[in-house]
UniProtKB/TrEMBL annotation:
Protein name: Valine--tRNA ligase
Family of this protein: Belongs to the class-I aminoacyl-tRNA synthetase family. ValS type 1 subfamily.
Domain Methionyl/Valyl/Leucyl/Isoleucyl-tRNA synthetase anticodon-binding: 653-822
Function field: Catalyzes the attachment of valine to tRNA(Val). As ValRS can inadvertently accommodate and process structurally similar amino acids such as threonine, to avoid such errors, it has a 'posttransfer' editing activity that hydrolyzes mischarged Thr-tRNA(Val) in a tRNA-dependent manner.
Keyword hit for Manganese: no
Gene source species: Afipia massiliensis
Top-level class of the enzyme under EC nomenclature: ligase
Description of its domains: ValRS has two distinct active sites: one for aminoacylation and one for editing. The misactivated threonine is translocated from the active site to the editing site. The C-terminal coiled-coil domain is crucial for aminoacylation activity.
Valyl-tRNA synthetase tRNA-binding arm domain residues: 884-949
Length: 952
């Protein structure tokens, strides 16, 4: 028996337990071992994370695909897991130690600190997994993986060692994004560009061999910089080769102010004649662009800052080399000062000595660490790198050839732009939590890369014995007695970038390299669902690693979803106070309402403007289906054994079978094409409008009538259509539909494992290209479905006409402001015998639902009638004497004037170039939406006025 009220919280907990107890989501279920596999890997959320709206959207869309394919009979593996999130997790535990006033990481030591992190992970990590379960994610939770599981760690070590052996991993001294607070290199993804109101300092660099005179510009060259504190590390001045102002200076040298070092003036296109003075200082050790200029011109790289962002000058051989004696005193004064304090001191000294030309206000973007919040420093240091350019080539070709396609396709351009300009990938991080780099150093610094320490020791002993640095006897002793090799080799302290292990996720989670059983069955996966922000950092790297180690792409399709914004279109952020917590929405409206909202708004390439009102509206949609199912139950609607809707006698029941088949096709096609909003829209219209508002309403007279074959058939048909709805809606609203299935279907077995209404066609057949034409593309042929879907055009013609006629009358009544209590006649003009018989069969329904007084037939429309054209048939409604036509015209004219004023007001704003240039994107979108609403209102008013003319 269906409860009176729909209570999501009570249902969701119970249904989740039923799924878990039945192992409903396990891949490789006995009955599906021979079925076609369908695999998705979850973008592993950080183990420190909690569910945010991006997660909710991403996992809802994945779950729709997985539940859909599971119901279509596939052996579905939705691979779950979490990422160890190096920096984030280390910060959480370090903050915890500080709050508890316990010894810090360095006081504790590496081993004990890592014990503490693992303990935190066991007790508190992975909260997000339970939150994903609350959302209804149908992952195979028995296969949950963690990027630092033993198996995944072995995969990481194997990949590192193999890439190193192939020359694709190497160590190099390059610039990295350095976080002076966290004391580690970080990835571009962890750098946040923040607009800062700063200054542009114009500095005078004297020319070599010329007496410097501040009043004579020919004695110096002016450079503009936003970072005067790094000038001590300048090794050149660059000018554009096409800049006539400086062409005569190229090849000459300038004197570095305050330091006295001579630095060359070089010609390089990096210098923009339109910016600043047109000449720029080149500091290869402290700027990414300068580093490349330095490489092009073989310049020295002098680092003048330490890891904590302090001036590092005393003992700095690079800095002190060629430094005049007079500069040493100033160097000592600066040494150890924070970079921003040093900036003030250097600017003051430049002004005192006459080398400061001018200062201009300058608003520019400054990189900040997204976790530490401090300004990121380009820092020259030894790090491990991957030759990403070599690995990228096959991954680029895979997308070019169509092996992997992006949906929407425009994201392929983003992928290509980054991949074709890819830089070496810095994979080392100066952290303790993560995959420690499998490299060991001998006493002379020689590096030995191996999967295990024993292997590294073996390599080292072989090397040093061969070089006769140690004797064979010493080597043998150390090989058999670990105590004798202590301190012989030391492991690299750094850990790998989190994205390195994540890049292996599609195959490392399947047991590679220990076993290939699951790899053979579930790799490549079928589709990746992810956000555009990690195309570079995760998608591209999975493509590179998949092609290199599996010799196949990790997924043939990458579906890129958009952002979830607030209801005004603004990006959600804590600072704006507009973050919507999905868990709060689940508490208030249920997981199904949130899921359906996200799916209904997930149009390809369009951001989602989320409001609680939309979620509340779809909770009402769930309630509508609940109440409709309860109505059916109370009226004895149950699916009779062996009921076949195609054998129904009643036109109304054949019509609902026809409409169900159409909805099934629409939903199936839309999900397969990743048009989630279209699939949700089709279900909403079918459930609310077709089934609840029309079918049940039109069936009421039969249900309320005496027992008859028509009543028995209608009861069975209502139950059948309801069950088909539960199947079609299940991927979107799993909790609600599973509950109703259990209560009303009266069958054993879960809806999650029931059969999808439309049987899946066979897999697409790829026919080869036309013989002799090497440029011809293969042809994809999709076989027809196994069964022909039910269709009854005659039933649709009759019931469709009835519904459209009643709807047209209701719409006209609303446009003309006619009260519901006012009955008026309906005249069917020039009706055929078929139309007359329809009208006679449905006259009682038409009178009740359209509020008609009488239905008649005529060859022409009566004078003073509004005429409606419904499927080629004319219906006339005489309105003279029914409403005050003059008063109605006055009312409509006022409404029209108001709509025109609204349109004019919006046009004035959108036509204002200053407004469009300065207003946030969401404000402009809001104005456009207002205009569209006013235009739609105006069209309806004009239609009503046109009808009034006909009546007059």
């Amino acid at each position: 028996m269906i409860e009176k009220n729909y209570q999501p919280a009570e249902i969701e907990t119970r249904i989740a337990s039923a799924w878990e107890d039945a192992g409903a989501f396990k891949a490789g279920r006995p009955e599906r071992r021979e079925a076609e596999p369908f695999t998705i890997v979850i973008p592993p959320p950080n183990v420190t994370g909690s569910l945010h709206m991006g997660h909710a959207l991403n996992n809802t869309l994945q779950d729709i695909l997985c539940r859909f394919e599971r119901m279509r009979g596939r052996d579905v593996l939705w691979q779950p897991g979490t990422d160890h999130a190096g920096i984030a997790t280390q910060m959480v535990v370090e903050r915890q130690l500080m709050e508890r006033q316990e010894p810090g990481r360095r006081d504790m030591g590496r081993a004990k600190f890592l014990e503490r992190v693992w303990k935190w992970k066991a007790e508190s990590g992975g909260v997000i997994v339970n939150q994903l379960k609350r959302l209804g994610a149908s992952c195979d939770w028995s296969r949950e993986r963690f990027t630092m599981d033993e198996g995944l760690s072995r995969a990481v070590a194997k990949v590192f060692v193999e890439l190193y052996a192939q020359g694709l991993i190497y160590k190099d001294k390059r610039l990295v994004n350095w976080d002076p607070k966290l004391l580690t290199a970080i990835s571009d993804l962890e750098v946040q560009q923040i607009e800062v109101k700063g200054s542009l300092w114009h500095l005078r660099y004297p020319l070599e061999g010329v007496a410097y005179n501040a009043e004579d510009p020919s004695t110096y060259i002016v450079v503009a910089t936003t970072r005067p504190e790094t000038m001590l590390g300048d090794t050149a001045v660059a000018v554009n080769p096409d800049d006539d102002r400086y062409r005569h200076l190229v090849g000459k040298r300038a004197v570095l102010p305050l330091v006295g070092r001579l630095i060359p003036i070089v010609a390089d296109e990096y210098s923009d004649p339109e910016k600043g003075s047109g000449a720029v200082k080149i500091t290869p050790a402290h700027d990414f662009n300068d580093f490349e200029v330095g490489r092009r011109h073989s310049l020295r790289s002098i680092s003048v800052l330490d890891q904590e962002g302090r001036m590092s000058l005393s003992g700095n051989e690079d800095y002190l080399r060629d430094l005049p004696e007079a500069a040493l005193i100033f160097a000592e004064e600066l040494d150890g000062k924070d970079r921003f304090a040093a900036r003030k001191l250097i600017v003051a000294r430049l002004e005192e000595t006459g080398f400061l030309d001018k200062i201009e206000p300058n608003t520019h973007m400054v990189p900040h660490g997204d976790r530490s919040g401090v300004v990121i420093e380009p820092y020259l240091t030894d790090q491990w790198y991957v030759d990403a350019k070599t690995l990228a080539a096959p991954a680029i070709a895979a997308v070019r050839s169509g092996e992997t396609a992006f949906v929407p396709k425009n994201w392929e351009k983003t992928y290509f732009e980054w991949m074709e300009n890819i830089q070496p990938w810095c994979i080392s991080r100066q952290l303790w939590w993560g995959h420690q780099i499998p490299a060991w150093y001998g006493p002379d610094g020689k590096v030995f890369v191996a999967e295990t320490e024993d292997e590294a020791v073996g390599k080292a002993l072989g090397y040093y014995v061969e070089k006769e640095i140690i004797t064979e006897e010493q080597g043998h002793d150390m090989a058999v007695d670990p105590a004798k090799r202590e301190g012989f080799i030391t492991r690299d302290e750094d850990v790998l970038d989190t994205w390195f292990s994540s890049a292996l996720w599609p195959f490392s989670t399947l047991g590679w390299p220990d076993t290939d059983v699951d790899v053979k069955r579930y790799y490549p996966t079928n589709v990746l669902v992810t956000g555009f922000d990690i195309i570079f950092f995760w998608v591209a790297r999975m493509m590179m690693m998949g092609k290199h180690f599996m010799k196949d792409v990790p997924f043939p399709t990458v579906y890129i979803h958009a952002l979830v914004r607030d209801e005004k279109g603004a990006k959600m952020s804590k600072s704006k106070g507009n973050v919507i917590d999905p868990l709060h929405l689940i508490d208030d409206y249920g997981a199904d309402a949130l899921r359906f909202t996200l799916a209904a708004m997930a149009a390809q390439g369009r951001d989602i403007k989320l409001s609680t009102q939309r979620v509340e509206g779809y909770r009402n949609f769930a309630t509508k289906l609940w109440n409709a199912s309860r109505f059916a139950e109370m009226n004895g609607c149950a699916l009779a054994e062996g009921f076949d809707p195609s054998k129904a006698k009643e036109t109304l029941n054949r019509w609902i079978a026809h409409e169900t088949a159409r909805a099934t096709r629409e939903v199936t096609d839309a999900i397969q094409a990743y048009r989630f909003n279209d699939a949700a829209g089709s279900m909403y219209r079918f459930v609310w409008n077709i089934y609840c508002d029309w079918y049940l309403e039109l069936a009421k007279p039969v249900l309320m009538g005496a027992d008859s074959p028509a009543k028995v058939e209608t009861q069975a048909s209502i139950a059948w259509a309801r069950d088909e709805i539960l199947k079609l809606l299940h991927p979107f609203m799993p909790f609600l539909t599973e509950e109703l299935w259990a209560v009303t279907a009266q069958r054993n077995g879960l809806l999650a494992l029931a059969e999808w209404p439309l049987k899946a066609p066979a897999e697409p057949i790829f026919e080869p290209a036309i013989a002799g034409d090497p440029m011809a593309m293969p042809v994809i042929v999709v076989p027809a479905p196994e069964i022909e879907q039910f269709s009854d055009p005659a039933a649709e013609a009759e019931i469709g006409w009835l519904i459209e006629l009643i709807s047209a009358i209701r719409s006209m009544r609303a446009e003309m402001n006619i009260p519901p209590a006012t009955l008026f006649p309906l005249v069917l003009v020039g009706a055929s015998a078929d139309i007359k018989s329809r009208a006679e069969r449905w006259s009682d329904v038409m009178k009740r639902l359209a509020r008609l007084g009488d239905i008649s037939f005529a060859d022409r429309a009566p004078d003073g009638s509004v005429q409606l054209l419904v499927r080629g048939e004319v219906a006339a409604i005489p309105l003279k004497g029914v409403i005050d036509l003059a008063a109605e015209k006055v009312r409509l004219d006022k409404e029209l004037a108001k709509a025109d004023a609204d349109i004019k007001r919006v046009d004035a704003k959108l036509g204002n170039e200053k407004f469009v240039a300065n207003a946030p994107e969401e404000v402009i979108d809001e104005q456009r939406e207002k205009r569209d609403e006013a235009e739609a209102r105006k069209a309806k008013i004009l239609e009503a006025l046109e009808r009034l003319k006909d009546v007059a």
